[in-house]
Amino acid sequence: MKRRRDPFQAIADPTRRAILVLLAAQAMTAGAIAENFDAARPTISKHLLVLQECELIDSNQKGREIIYEIKLDKMKEIDHWLQQFRKIWESRFDQLDNLLSHLNHKKP
């Protein structure tokens, strides 16, 4: 039985976020991913397992190699959740811009 974790648990870790960035550019083997980090390959494999359990990446056997790739649909779910915060911050920045503009026009 496959264990499921919360995707936010996965992206909370900087190494896993970096792995996602790598996989967003291209599908890679665990060895190719590990070459980008100053960590032992078993450590990277554990990070890959967490990302798989969170359904953020998928693995496919090609010959003797396992190729990892990002699951864009799951990343879109995270982006959708973050969108609510993006709207709040954009609104706050707009308010700040308006305030600063108003203050600059009031200068003698």
From TrEMBL:
Pfam families reported in the protein's UniProt record: HTH_5
CDD domains in the record: HTH_ARSR (cd00090)
InterPro entries: ArsR-like_HTH, HTH_ArsR_DNA-bd_dom, WH-like_DNA-bd_sf, WH_DNA-bd_sf
Ranges of residues in domain HTH arsR-type: 1-90
Gene Ontology molecular-function annotations: DNA-binding transcription factor activity
NCBIfam families documented for this protein: HTH_metalloreg (NF033788)
Name of the molecule in the record: Putative transcriptional regulator
